[in-house]
Model the fold of this input.
Amino acid sequence: MSNATMKGVVFLGDRVAEVRDFPVPTPGRGQVLVQLKTAAICGSDLHVYRRPKAEFAGRPVWIPGHEPAGVVAAVGECCDRVKVGDRVTIYHWLGCGHCRYCLAGYFQWCEHRRGLGQPDAVGPDADYIVVDERNCLHLPEALSFEDGAMIACIAATGYSSMRKLQPNGEDTLIVFGQGPVGLTGTIMGKALGARVIGVDIADERLELAKKLGADEVLNPNKVKLIDAVKDLTGGMGADCAFETSGSAAGQQGVIDTLKLGGRGVFVGVGAVGPTVNLSSIIGKQLVLMGSFVMPIHYYWDLVDFMLQHNLSAKYQQMITHRFKITEAPEAFRVADSGKAGKVIFVWD
Done:
């Protein structure tokens, strides 16, 4: 395929995405060429999409994305774990493979880590991608390529966060932000038996949250959030909280709406500077944690969780828009609107 070309997306700054032709890459030693079947747009892709043109000036363009699934098209030397034709999803943090963190399965903590879709690691918003064999994870036939794209990031983020929060049938879980990651928290929280309160300022997303199982939904632009949560919890507050919006209001909202001794996980980024009242954290004796994707060794546990709770059906409802890679400019406009569910690229 040395002379073959493929379509791939690049960002030019100021919310401009463009489709260009690239040579199909060749896998090197220990690498695999994957033909994409699905690639999803993540909120962190949108952070790059929104950057000003000045940040792109004088820099080589790169292909974004980090939520892929596809079929192995070729393998390089010394690959013995995957073969041509295998269905795979791709773990999107690339580690050195030798440090204490990589050997423990925490590629995302590696000092020399690289993330797909960043300038030093080409992403999957293209027809093909080359990745390290160790990052290819076999996708069971019971899961679709679209499931595989969800597992690559948002399901992984939600699953690792729920493992930290441990919501159960006696808990009320409040989820801040009902974009794709927040919806994952809503879906998984319900699967674990919790009562779920979804929070967002977009009514379209709250409607989708209800469809996916949220017991209650609240728009903080229309209600006083603290009072509403207390009314729904007998004056106690929520047992646990999952913050995905990255907003200052959402971060403070976690602290304000949790009960005494409540627990919260933060995954959303975006707020700048001090945003929370530390005195409240101390006084309420809250347990607050950050979470970031998941370690690669959680993969089969997540697969089992998805199959056990039939989450494929939920994720199919979460996907609101599907585009061809040649339609990338429109796909990113839709994803950037703040009103869509999950937006994905699909290949025949």
